[in-house]
Design goal:
Six copies of one chain form a homohexamer. Chain A is α+β, with helices and mostly antiparallel strands. The first copy, chain A, is 31% helix and 34% strand. Chain A has a single domain, classed as 2-Layer Sandwich (Alpha-Beta Plaits), CATH 3.30.70. In chain A, strands 1, 2, 3, 4, 5 and 6 form a six-stranded antiparallel β-sheet that branches. At the A-B interface, helix 2, helix 4, strand 4 and strand 5 of A face helix 2, helix 4, strand 4 and strand 5 of B.
Chain lengths: 148, 148, 148, 148, 148, 148
């Protein structure tokens, strides 16, 4: 794990995105709140937040950081005419620390998406997760980044 | 967490796939073993295996299972003429238990891909992870599944 | 950790109860879904389920068990005339294994109650958790137990 | 998980209380050091300390904090004439950080009490844990709190 | 993680040994129960038991196993005339499963020894841990093993 | 867990050493990269780094610290004429915090050594781990320490 002891503690944020393409039955289930395992987005949100806090245990070379905030959002990208049902997930993570929180945001988004898969897989295993990507980061010596 | 106490312990397997699209510099770094954080695929493999074992702690509604085997493989999908560099990851998980290991395979693949991102992000944050999907599963009452 | 290697794997269940006495403002917040941290019962349910799975890591002498089911329920015990607002929590845990799941049920109920406290404490720190107790258990050599 | 990145790092403490009502046989066992699983209070103390450190993994919306101190104490509240045997537990937690440690104190007290239950349940499952409550906290923008 | 799905579940045990060479002041502290962090052997015992249960999370290629028993013992090897003070630790682990528990026994012994170091290091950092070794194992296809 | 809230955050380092005595077959396996579980040193390095980050969960009275760097190195101490094959491991840990990182360095070295044992035990269970010791530490009120 690379040495960051010379780095300054600065405010840092990162925002990542992923998505889950689902079928119509799953779309109905989530919309109508009829998934028998629970409230899909509420559980996925908790999974994302806990994964963000657990990132340094999941990603071997990741530095442990005391996160100051984690936010998970869900959007719908639906085109019923063409049978396209997609949940778009956004994870925003903040810290004041010596390294960035890109991995925390990406890990949170991934865990939330995997949780959607888990809760809905009884109604269709053909769901596809991703593309998963970093949207933007701020803070740190390497400067801000925003996906073009 | 749904009740599976009536389900039989049977041999079960699942295989999931994901990928990481990288840039040429990262491709060279992995191929030449010059990543300063370590051997990228070796570390990603460990991350995948440990995430598989940790799935029930990452995915809230997932049942804990004593896994009997986890295998992480990496393939290259490279088209240098068109500047396309992609690592394709396969995670295969086995157990003898009352529920399937789809989530373990998907979580292992995701953690391995996130680890590649983490180890290589100093050379380019525009990497894209996914699509992540289940390729096949065997065992259990719902029968075998193979992605068409 | 006492040796249970001679014990038989049998179906076992346990049900525990706890409660959280809250103030009227918190009651309104939960009922109206206006808690700014999220859906209180949904998050508490996830916390309870994950704690049940994590019991052997929280309670030192507890044997690890592959749980087959965890269920967290919430009831209201409200007497507005007398200003009494109370959430009653029930945690039911099942396994097929060599030891009982009393601790998993009690730990799940406790973690769910603590999560309610955490999410609502901005509106009143005087909440009281408990009494926490085992309601019943089935299975195992010592036989069934039901609180009188 | 709410954003605390604007909050100052200040010294913070919290003290929580819970209790376990036990029967006379369990009282004798603890007093005489004859519990076959080990030294009940010593193990419960370790469980409380480790739970305090693990709070952000048990309580979903809790911020991770680098604790600077955790102290678990046990008192007896015994009235033999009336057959009342009760262990009273106090957990005190300190940190220098942006959020308070109420949840760490409450979680530590709960885990210690659950551990007493676990170690003694062979001699009586009718033990009752709680009431569990915050006694006082210091530090932070919302000021000090002391249970009336 | 190698595939053990063809292996039979059999009763398995393993016993490992390690030791900690300490100075006289630490010896007195442990014997007299004056270590200010707590009861050294009681805390080390808990650390060993919890590490045994956590082995598959500490050792990457280790299969998760539902342990049926863990026992940690401490012996003194003291030669005051020559100023030699040594704690000898034994960890015995049992399971009924498809792979052995050598790593659980070795990891338990190591964690218990490290805990002794941690609790006593204020009185002398020159302590030496080890040699750590497997004493014997039983069960499994490869048969029993006993260190000569 | 003793109160360190009055201690200053200072830069701190610690370096620990352990070793694993192996047989010639295992030596060949590691050197030739023919261990069927993977690259022995790469996996052991990951295990050491993750254990360093996890120290406060493994060692009960250890304070949680945000590590700024962990480095695991392997050396050979081989005397083929006398049939002596030994891997020497060094773990260096850095932080900026209120307590030292001796335990993190010792725990990292131990976990890396245990991982070597685990990956190689099919070729000989007589391996011996240790002696494990602190080589040096810097920072903190008690000053620097260097093993004589």
């Amino acid at each position: 794990m690379v040495d960051v002891s010379e780095k300054q503690d600065t405010a840092r944020t990162a925002r990542a995105q992923t998505s889950v393409v689902i079928n119509e039955a799953i779309y109905r289930q989530i919309k109508d709140g009829t998934n028998k395992k629970g409230d899909v987005f509420a559980v996925a949100q908790v999974a994302g937040i806990m994964a963000a806090k657990n990132t340094a245990q999941i990603i071997p070379m990741c530095h442990p950081l005391a996160l100051s905030g984690v936010d998970i959002r869900f959007d719908w990208n639906v085109d019923q005419a063409n049978g396209h049902y997609e949940v778009v997930l956004f994870a925003t993570v903040k810290t004041k620390g010596p390294t960035g929180v890109e991995m925390e945001a990406l890990t949170a988004a991934s865990a939330a998406a995997l949780t959607i898969y888990d809760m809905c897989k009884a109604a269709g295993k053909e769901m596809v997760i991703g593309p998963t990507m970093l949207l933007e980061k701020t803070g740190g010596k390497s400067g801000d980044y925003s996906r073009g």
